[in-house]
Design goal:
The protein has a single domain (5-266), classed as Vaccinia Virus protein VP39 (Rossmann fold, 3-Layer(aba) Sandwich). It has helices spanning 17-24, 32-44, 48-69, 88-95, 108-112, 114-117, 136-140, 143-148, 172-181, 200-212, 222-226, 255-258, and strands spanning 74-78, 100-105, 125-130, 156-160, 188-194, 233-234, 240-241, 260-266. The protein is built from twelve helices and eight strands. Keywords: Methyltransferase, Transferase. This is SAM-dependent methyltransferase. Pfam families: Methyltransf_19. GO terms for molecular function: methyltransferase activity.
């Protein structure tokens, strides 16, 4: 991708978490610096590829469950990342064609590919906002959000593999609480979060790779991830390892390979 026109104005001097994630998923939208960092992670944690795939699979299942079983027709997906089909709106609109989805990310590379995120059904709507989860009010005040989402009706807040990039110093629980506060009863939080619970030594090394690359991370325990769902009604099976949250087939990966806590909660 280094010679692609889309690379203009993109910082390729250091790796970026979204581009590294693209590498883990087998995508092509990354650079040599991202490949090197991602392969360094994989050298200490070979399960990273499984983790990334299971994160995507959880997002697909959670979206379908919310659409089919809980009447959700609107999604706010923050930390969208580089588009990988099927995107969230494609999954939602395959169940309910009228679904509306707002994507938000602060990575300029995602903006380059935002057109992929706009290919909605004629019945539904999608849009993309360049915004940072650390500034939730600016995101919520964006006119593009108001044009697509009705905050008077239930919205699913989708935070997949995002909050471990928000350290405690950045008030992650306060951020999620502020986002949920503006959503009405019947709204939902779907969240996935990497964890060191199953192999602390390995995840300490993964933390070092990201930190050395200029991306602070804080991988959290199950108890810490549960705090994001305070005040919500957790859907069965509660906060579970990603491949064990309502799997479509019998899981084959180990918990340590996946190392991802996932959950969906409904706002009463």
């Amino acid at each position: 991708m280094t010679n692609s026109p889309i690379a203009r104005d993109i910082d390729t001097s250091r790796p970026h978490s979204a581009r590294m994630y693209d590498y883990y998923l087998g995508g092509k939208d990354h650079f040599e610096v991202d490949t090197h960092a991602a392969e360094t992670v994989a050298s200490v944690y070979p399960g990273i590829f499984v983790c990334a795939r299971e994160n995507r699979a959880f997002m697909h299942r959670a979206t379908r469950v919310l659409a089919r079983e809980h009447g959700i027709r609107q999604w706010l997906d923050i930390g969208t990342g580089i588009p990988t089909e099927p995107n969230l709106h494609q999954v939602a609109q395959s169940v309910v064609p009228e679904a509306r989805v707002v994507y938000a990310d602060n990575d300029p590379l995602v903006l380059k590919y935002a057109e992929r995120l706009m290919r909605s059904t004629t019945q539904g709507r999608t849009t993309y906002i360049e915004a940072d989860v650390n500034d939730p009010q600016t995101l919520l005040d964006a006119p593009e959000l108001a044009e697509v989402l009705d905050l008077g009706r239930p919205v699913a807040l989708s935070l997949n593999a995002l909050m471990h990039f928000v350290t405690d110093a950045q008030d992650p629980y306060g951020i999620v609480s502020r986002l949920l506060d503006v959503l009405p009863s019947g709204s939902a939080l779907a969240l996935s979060h990497c964890t060191p619970d199953f192999d602390p030594d390995t995840w300490q090394k993964v933390t070092a790779v990201y930190t050395d690359a200029g991306t602070p991370v804080q991988f959290r325990s199950r108890a810490d991830v549960l705090r994001f769902f305070d005040g919500l009604e957790l859907l069965d099976p509660g906060v579970s390892v990603g491949h064990r949250w309502r799997p479509d087939e019998e899981p084959t990966a180990t918990d340590a390979e996946v190392s991802l806590w996932t959950g969906v909660g409904i706002k009463p």
